[in-house]
Amino acid sequence: MEQVGLAATSEVTLWSLFMQAGFVVKLVMLGLIGASIWTWAIVADKWVSFAKFRRQLDQFEQVFWSGQSLEELYRTLSDRKSSGMSAIFVSAMREWKKSFERGAKSPIGLQMRIDKAMDVTLAREADALEARLGSLATIGSAAPFIGLFGTVVGIMTSFQAIAGSKSTNLAVVAPGIAEALLATAIGLLAAIPAVIAYNKFSADAGKLSARMEGFTDEFSGILSRQIDERLSARPAAE
Amino acid sequence: MKGSLATSTVLHVLVLGFALSSFSAPRTLEVADVEALPVSIVPIEEITQMQQGDKTAPLAEIAAPIPTARPDPVADAENAGDNTVDLKSSKSAKPSPQEVVSEAPPKPAEKPVPVPEPAPKAPEPPQAAEAEPAPAPEKPAEPAPAPEEVAALPPESAPDPVAEAITEAEPAKPDFAALPSVGPVPQARPEPPKETAKAPAKPTAATETAKAPAKPAAAAETASTKDSDFNADEVAALLNKQDAKGGGAKRSTETASLGASRTTRGNTLSQSEMDALRGQIQRNWNIIPGMADGGDVRVTVTMKLDPSGNIVGQPDVVATGGSEGVRRTLSGSARRAVLKSQPYQLPQEKYDSWAEVVVNFDPSQMF
């Protein structure tokens, strides 16, 4: 911090401000820039994945309600890696198949198992949707404070340097404070997009989860009807 | 996720690079130089506490007025100068009838004594002493010839001891009579009887007799007689309408230094002087101990003092707080204390500061 006095004559560009900063302030600034990079990475990732997810849901719903046979649909979907509603459909169908192949006796037990399987899959899918939104929230709330910490430390050290230089000239005081305030600026720069993105993506994730839950309930109803039909048909046949 | 992380990093690098390259140092703020207004605090002591000196002389350690040529000192002189008499400024030069009268009387007191001895032909003066009102009418008749003699004799030498006695007695009167003519005459009368208690007849008789005839002789006589020496100066001082600054009789041998025409001590009583005043009053302040709620009372006495330290008029006593009875008691005791303490022993030269004194009595410490 000895160069604070000299800073009065030197340039006050962003780079010089950063280079003049103390160790702690530099660390804070670098950390905040890292947080900003991470935030935008999450934003980009979520943006792409949510768009893809929504497209898949639309496609699946279109196919599902087109009147295509469930067996056929299961056969086409079980091969490839699926996500969202198709994953729920596949897990339910898999459970259905297993139960009927072994000749399940209780319709209630079968219904329960299928529901459980769908719930687990739904929970997994919802988790995948909300993954990393927590870190967005953390950055959004903590980054301003981290930046403030950097500012306080920077101003503290710059005042110590001023006390050392025994001059209260504004030209001596100003660069240190400007450099310290840079930390808060970077903190806000990281926090504001993070907060906005968190609000948007958590709302989107909520909507998508609700859509999947709706499908789960509907599919559960369809399967329950099927089970009743099959079980009532079987004793009649026997 | 990896792809988006890479995208974000690249984006940040781009943005930061752009910011670092384009956001150079902001334009320097131009600040006009403002000249500071110098403020100095001037102590008022420079005016209230001055030493006698010369206004144009440089500052020196020892305060002294312009050196005077004559070295012989004159006692009690105030204004620096080469005069034999300390001439006061125009304020004192104004003729005051009282002053003149007070100085004139001593002469008649001395002169009349020889008069009765050399004058055998005046048997009536002793009688006059016995009964003043009676001789008065007689005198005018007798003196009548005297004026004629005086009027005739003065040009020549005095052959008649009686005439001489009269003329000698007269000189005091003439200027006595002449000066009052400027101011009010009646004031001159009461003085002589007081001073010359042993032989009041002579002066009174002489005055009455002299009044008419003395006037013509006065001019000639004053010049020749020795008392006139004093009077001439007095008259000169009275006639001097100029400011007597620098024309006084105070001697100075030091080099002139910066100062005022006279020494001003300022208007502040020193702490010890105030303590003395306080002690003087406190000795005479008796209050009845154990008076209930007497501690709440504050008494303020305002009094005007004359230069000799006596109270002029009645002191103004104001008491606050406490009950009515206690207030009355304490204000009475404060008034008694202040009245009993006169005359106040305070420095004469600081009279300005203690011409009016406000004394605060706080009985709370007394109970």
From TrEMBL, chain A:
It comes from the Bacteria. Part of the Tol-Pal system, which plays a role in outer membrane invagination during cell division and is important for maintaining outer membrane integrity. PANTHER family: PROTEIN TOLQ, TOL-PAL SYSTEM PROTEIN TOLQ. HAMAP family: TolQ (MF_02202). InterPro entries: ExbB/TolQ_transport (IPR050790), MotA_ExbB_proton_chnl (IPR002898), Tol-Pal_TolQ (IPR014163). One of its GO terms (cellular component) is plasma membrane. Belongs to the ExbB/TolQ family. NCBIfam families: tolQ. It holds the Pfam family MotA_ExbB. Residues 111-213 form the MotA/TolQ/ExbB proton channel domain. The gene is tolQ. This is Tol-Pal system protein TolQ. The Tol-Pal system is composed of five core proteins: the inner membrane proteins TolA, TolQ and TolR, the periplasmic protein TolB and the outer membrane protein Pal. They form a network linking the inner and outer membranes and the peptidoglycan layer. It is found in: Cell inner membrane; Cell membrane. GO terms for biological process: bacteriocin transport; cell division; protein import. Keywords: Cell cycle, Cell division, Cell inner membrane, Cell membrane, Membrane, Transmembrane, Transmembrane helix. The lineage of its organism: Bacteria, Pseudomonadati, Pseudomonadota, Alphaproteobacteria, Hyphomicrobiales. The keyword DNA damage does not apply. The chain crosses the membrane at residues 23-44, 133-156, 176-198. It is a multi-pass membrane protein.
From TrEMBL, chain B:
Residues 105-126, 134-146 have a biased composition (Pro residues). Residues 86-95, 254-270 have a biased composition (Polar residues). It comes from the Bacteria. Residues 68-270 are annotated as: Disordered. Residues 198-223 have a biased composition (Low complexity). Transmembrane segments: none annotated. Keywords: Signal. Residues 1-24 form the signal peptide. This is Protein TolA.
